C-alpha cells in the first residue's frame, strides 16, 4: 500500500524527512560518492534504531518485556513504517553508490614503483638560521653541555594560577562549608 507523502512526512522529524527526500532520483544525481557514503551511514543507523524500537515495542505489547515508560506500548505500526521508509531510502542510496563506483573505478597506487625524491632544501649561504621555536612560541635556549645544568623548569599546572583568583577561593570555601554543615546534620541522626 502506497502512503501519501504528507502522512509519511508526518511520521518523520525534519532532518529525517530531508534525508528521505534526498534519496529521490532527481536529488540522487547531485550527490558525490563521499556524500552518499555519509548518508548511507546515517540512514543505516536510523533504520536499525527504528527496527530495534519496533521490536522492543512489540515485546512490550505482548507483555514479554517490562515497559520502558510509564505507559505500555500498544502498537508499533508507525515505528515499523518508519523503519521501512529508511530501508527503502538505504536501498536507493546503495544502488546509486554502486552505479557511481562502477562508472569511475578507483585508481590504485603503484606500490613497487618508487617516487622520485625531492631535492633537499639548501639554506642560503651567509645567513644565520632562524632560532627554532617551541610549541608555546618562545625561543628555545640551548642548554650548555659544559656546565651540565639545565634551565629551571617553569611550574606547570593551572591549579596554581587558579588559587590566585578570589572567586574560586569563595567557591571552594562555600563548598567546604556545605560539607561541614552536612557532616553536623549526619552526626545528629
Brief synopsis:
By secondary structure, the chain is an all-alpha fold.
Please characterize this protein's 3D structure:
- The protein has 189 residues and is mainly α.
- Among the domains are: 5-103; 161-188.
- The chain is built from seven helices and no strands.
- It has helices spanning 5-11, 14-21, 25-28, 33-61, 77-103, 158-162, 166-188.
- Helix 4 (33-61) packs antiparallel against helix 5.
Give helix and strand order, one letter per element, not per position: HHHHHHH
Helix content range: 40-55%
The first-to-last residue Cα distance is 68 Å
The total of helices stands at 7
The share of residues in extended strands comes to under 5%
Structural class: mainly alpha
Main sheet overview: none
Catalogue the unreliable spans.
none
Q: Shape, please?
A: flat
Tally of strands: 0
> Rg to the nearest angstrom?
32 Å
The mean pLDDT is 77
List the SSEs and their pairings:
Elements: H1 5-11, H2 14-21, H3 25-28, H4 33-61, H5 77-103, H6 158-162, H7 166-188
Keywords:
single chain; mainly alpha; 189 residues
Amino acid at each position: 500500500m502506497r502512503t501519501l507523502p504528507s502522512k509519511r512526512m508526518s511520521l518523520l522529524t525534519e532532518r529525517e524527512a530531508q534525508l528521505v527526500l534526498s534519496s529521490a532520483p532527481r536529488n540522487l544525481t547531485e550527490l558525490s560518492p563521499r556524500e552518499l557514503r555519509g548518508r548511507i551511514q546515517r540512514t543505516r543507523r536510523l533504520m536499525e534504531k527504528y527496527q530495534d524500537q519496533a521490536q522492543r515495542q512489540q515485546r512490550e505489547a505482548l507483555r514479554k518485556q517490562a515497559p520502558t515508560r510509564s505507559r505500555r506500548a500498544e502498537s508499533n505500526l508507525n515505528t515499523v513504517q518508519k523503519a521501512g521508509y529508511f530501508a527503502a531510502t538505504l536501498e536507493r542510496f546503495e544502488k546509486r553508490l554502486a552505479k557511481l563506483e562502477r562508472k569511475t573505478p578507483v585508481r590504485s597506487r603503484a606500490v613497487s614503483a618508487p617516487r622520485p625524491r625531492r631535492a633537499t632544501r639548501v639554506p642560503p649561504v651567509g645567513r644565520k638560521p632562524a632560532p627554532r621555536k617551541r610549541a608555546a612560541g618562545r625561543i628555545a635556549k640551548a642548554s650548555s653541555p659544559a656546565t651540565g645544568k639545565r634551565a629551571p623548569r617553569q611550574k606547570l599546572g593551572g591549579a596554581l594560577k587558579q588559587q590566585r583568583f578570589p572567586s574560586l577561593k569563595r567557591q571552594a570555601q562555600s563548598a567546604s562549608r556545605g560539607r561541614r554543615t552536612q557532616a553536623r546534620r549526619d552526626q545528629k541522626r
